[in-house]
TrEMBL record:
This is Transmembrane protein 104. It is a multi-pass membrane protein. Belongs to the TMEM104 family. It comes from Trichechus manatus latirostris. Its main location: membrane. PANTHER family: TRANSMEMBRANE PROTEIN 104, TRANSMEMBRANE PROTEIN 104-RELATED. The gene is TMEM104.
Length: 496
C-alpha cells in the first residue's frame, strides 16, 4: 500500500471480486448519506447520486486501463532485460556513436517490431499488483508524484479523523441521554447538546473525549507495527455490514408501510448540496484500492461489465437506504450516524437489535482503523524515501507513526461533526483521488503506450471512455466542484 509492486495474492472468481468491491465502496460514508439526502432534497440528491456514481465508474475504468498499461511496461522490461544482457556481453564495440544509435533503436524501434511479431494478446494482462503510487512514479514526473502522495495522505488523514470520531460518537450516543442512563438508548426526536450531562457531573462532550482517549490507547499502538487485514476478519465485517444495512432498510420499510413514516423531505434545497457532494464522492471511493481488488480476479475478460454491474447495485442500494430513511424519519431527527436512529424503543422493540445497530460502526470501524493508519504511515515513508537510503530507528519507529496518529486524533478531539468531516474529506482529497489522479494517469499512460508500442497495439483493458474529451470533462468537473465547494464554504461562513 506504499505505492510499490506487491504480490497478487490468492486468486478469486470475478463474482467474488464484485462482492469485494461492493463491500469496499459501501462503508462509513453510506451511514452519513441519509442526513445529507434529507438536507439537500430527494430529487437533487437522486440526480447528484446517479451522476457522481457515473463519474466514479468512468474514473474506475481509467485506473484499470492505467493498471494494464503499467503491467505491459513491466512485462516488456522483463522481456528485454535478458536480451540487453546478451548484447552487452557479446558486443565489444567502444564507439560511443554506435552505442547511442543502438540504444535509440532499442528504445524507439525494437519494442514495436517485437510486439508485432509476438502478438499483443497477453501484453496488457493485469497480473502484477501495481499500486497507484507506483503507477504515479511510472507515468508522472517528480512534481506529479509528490502531488499524488500529498493528495492520498490528506485523504487518509480525513479517513482516520472520521473513524476516530465515529466510534466515540456512537458510544456516547448509546450510553448518554439528557435524563441520564436510559435503557432504550437514544431518543430519536430529541436534540442533544454537548454540554448536557451524561453520568453525574460528566457532560456528553467529556464522555465523548473519554471514549476517544480509550479508542486511541487501544488502537493507536497498532500504528507502530505492521498490521494486515485477514481474510476471516474481512468476511466477519462484511457479514455484519450486510446484516446491519438489511435490518435498517427492512425496519424503515415496515414503519413506512404501517403509516408511521414521519419524513417529508423537500424536493430540492441547494444549501445542503455542498455536504451531499462530499458525502457522495466519499461513498463511491474505491480508486485507490483497485489494484488490490482487480489484480487477483482470475478471469478479466468481462471486467468492465462486472464493474458496471457493481456500480448499478451500489446505486440501487444507496438509493434504497437513503429514501427509506428520509421518508421514515423527520429531517431534523436524522443523526450523523444513521444506525443511531434505531437505538430507541419506539423504533426497535428488541434490545439486542438496538444495541447491535448502534454499536455496529464501533466494531467495523475499529477493525479498519489500524489498517488505514499503517497505510498512511507507509505512504509517509515512501514520500520521503531516497534511493539507497534508510531511516534511523527513531524516525522509522517513532516519528512516522506519531505524525500519522496525532493529527486525526486532534481533529476528532475538536469535533465530532461526522457529516462535515465526510463532506470535506470527500469534496477535497476525495475529488483528487477519484477524479484528478485517474484522469492524469490515463492521459499519460496512453501517451507512453503509444510511444513504446505504437498506435497499432491496443490495450485490451482500455476504458470505454477512450476519447480525450472524457479526460478533459472529468478534470473540468473536478475543478468546478472544487471551486463550488470552496465558494459555498466561504459564503456560509460569511453569513454566520
Amino acid at each position: 500500500m506504499a505505492g510499490e509492486i506487491t504480490e497478487t495474492g490468492e486468486l478469486y472468481s470475478p463474482y467474488v471480486g464484485l462482492v469485494y468491491m461492493f463491500n469496499l465502496i459501501v462503508g462509513t460514508g453510506a451511514l452519513t448519506m441519509p442526513k445529507a439526502f434529507a438536507a439537500a432534497g430527494w430529487l437533487v440528491s437522486l440526480v447528484l447520486l446517479v451522476f457522481l456514481g457515473f463519474m466514479s465508474f468512468v474514473t474506475t475504468t481509467f485506473v484499470m486501463e492505467a493498471m494494464a498499461a503499467a503491467n505491459a511496461q513491466l512485462r516488456w522490461k522483463r522481456m528485454e532485460s535478458p536480451k540487453e544482457e546478451e548484447e552487452d556481453s557479446s558486443s565489444s564495440a567502444s564507439d560511443s556513436d554506435v552505442l547511442i544509435q543502438d540504444s535509440y533503436e532499442r528504445a524507439e524501434k525494437r519494442p514495436i517490431l517485437s510486439v508485432q511479431r509476438r502478438g499483443s494478446s497477453n501484453l496488457f494482462e493485469i497480473t502484477d499488483r501495481v499500486e497507484m503510487g507506483q503507477m504515479a512514479s511510472m507515468f508522472f514526473n517528480k512534481v506529479g508524484v509528490n502531488l499524488f502522495y500529498f493528495c492520498i495522505i490528506i485523504y487518509l488523514y480525513g479517513d482516520l479523523a472520521i473513524y476516530a470520531a465515529a466510534v466515540p460518537f456512537s458510544l456516547m450516543q448509546v450510553t448518554c441521554s439528557t435524563t441520564g442512563n436510559d435503557s432504550c438508548g437514544v431518543e430519536a426526536d430529541t436534540k442533544y447538546n454537548d454540554t448536557d450531562l451524561c453520568w453525574g457531573p460528566i457532560r456528553r462532550v467529556d464522555a465523548y473525549r473519554i471514549y476517544l482517549a480509550v479508542f486511541t490507547l487501544l488502537l493507536g499502538p497498532f500504528t507502530f507495527f505492521d498490521v494486515q487485514k485477514t481474510k476471516y476478519l474481512q468476511i466477519l465485517t462484511s457479514l455484519m455490514r450486510w446484516i446491519a444495512f438489511t435490518i435498517m432498510i427492512v425496519l424503515a420499510l415496515v414503519r413506512i408501510g404501517h403509516g408511521q413514516g414521519e419524513g417529508h423531505p423537500p424536493l430540492a434545497d441547494l444549501a445542503g448540496v455542498r455536504n451531499l457532494f462530499g458525502v457522495c464522492v466519499y461513498s463511491f471511493m474505491c480508486q485507490h484500492s483497485l489494484p488490490s481488488l482487480v489484480t487477483p480476479v482470475s478471469s478479466k475478460r468481462h471486467l468492465t461489465g462486472l464493474v458496471f454491474l457493481d456500480y448499478m447495485l451500489i446505486l440501487a442500494f444507496y438509493s434504497l437506504l437513503s429514501f427509506t430513511a428520509i421518508f421514515c424519519f423527520r429531517s431534523d431527527s436524522l443523526l450523523d450516524m444513521y444506525t443511531l436512529n434505531f437505538a430507541h424503543c419506539d423504533v426497535v422493540g428488541l434490545a439486542a437489535v438496538r444495541f447491535f445497530l448502534a454499536l455496529f460502526p464501533v466494531f467495523t470501524i475499529s477493525t479498519n482503523f489500524p489498517i488505514i493508519a499503517v497505510t498512511l504511515r507507509n505512504n509517509w515513508k515512501t514520500l520521503f524515501h531516497r534511493e539507497g537510503g534508510t531511516y534511523p530507528w527513531v524516525v522509522d519507529r517513532v516519528v512516522f507513526p506519531t505524525i500519522t496518529l496525532l493529527p486525526p486524533v486532534v481533529v476528532a478531539f475538536c469535533t465530532h461533526d461526522l457529516e462535515s468531516l465526510v463532506g470535506i474529506t470527500g469534496a477535497y482529497a476525495g475529488t483528487g483521488i477519484q477524479y484528478v489522479i485517474p484522469a492524469f494517469l490515463v492521459y499519460h499512460c496512453r501517451k507512453d503506450t503509444e510511444l513504446a508500442f505504437g498506435y497499432s497495439i491496443v490495450n485490451k483493458h482500455r476504458s470505454p471512455f477512450r476519447h480525450t474529451f472524457w479526460v478533459g470533462f472529468v478534470l473540468l468537473w473536478a475543478f468546478s466542484c472544487f471551486f463550488f465547494v470552496t465558494a459555498n464554504i466561504i459564503l456560509s461562513e460569511t453569513k454566520l
